Amino acid sequence: MSMAFELSAGFADKVTSAQTTFRAVMQAMARPGTVQRLETGLQQVPAPLTAATAAIALTLFDHDTPLWLDQATHVAVVTQWLRFHTSAPLVNEPDAAAFALIADPQAMPSLQGFALGSNDYPDRSTTLILQLASLDKRPAFDLSGPGIRGTTTLRAPLPADLLAQRDALAPLFPRGLDLILAAGDAIVAIPRTTRLVAQGDN
Fold it and tell me: What is the spatial distance between Cα 25 and Cα 3, in angstroms, rounded to a whole number?
């Protein structure tokens, strides 16, 4: 595949695809733990991005959304594709980012290193987009909180210490971090208001 093709590949129908993706992300946030499928229409995206991650980037990123990339995504083909399609400025420090793309969650920085917002402006936090191998395989977690009736089950290979790090941030509410998990063309959202417990630990 040529670089020219990679830089030109985006939504075939920008308006409709962006609207559809935005609605899916909002639905995922409103119903934490539920899998939402994105009809991206994207045939190919620069590795290691998934179709869902690329669609989110095309929909939510722009020149006003500083972006932090982990080592796995900070490669030339991805950075050029993102700059061409979104104009999102890349930042070197996680706490300066509005969004963070993480293709290797096992090696991600501590959650404390990202922007947590403030009490007056909790929305000025980093939204983390974690790419995972799947959203339908163990380990399993119980989710509870706003938008969830009782509890719901999430199956995803989350980093082993992610839950403890999220628990440590809970007393800072309304400050905190929102997570979007992506695998293939699917996403799941875990807002800061959602309690996440490994099955068997509660």
Answer: 29
CA 102 to the chain's CA centroid: 8
Determine the longest span between alpha carbons in the chain, in angstroms.
Answer: 51
Helices (H), 3-138: 3-8, 14-30, 51-60, 76-86
Report the alpha-carbon distance of residue 43 to residue 199 in Å, rounded: 36
CB 53 within 8 A of CB 78: no
Dihedral sign, Cα of residue 160, residue 161, residue 162, residue 163: positive
With a CB cutoff of 8 Å and minimum separation 6, the contacts of 19 are: none
**What would the pLDDT profile of 123-138 be if each residue is shown by its tens digit?**
999 999 999 999 998 8
Note the pLDDT tens digit of each residue in 136-150.
988 999 999 999 999
Note the pTM of the prediction, 2 decimals.
0.94
Which architecture does CATH list for 3-109+120-191?
A: 3-Layer(aba) Sandwich (3.40)
Report domain extents, the chain: 3-109+120-191
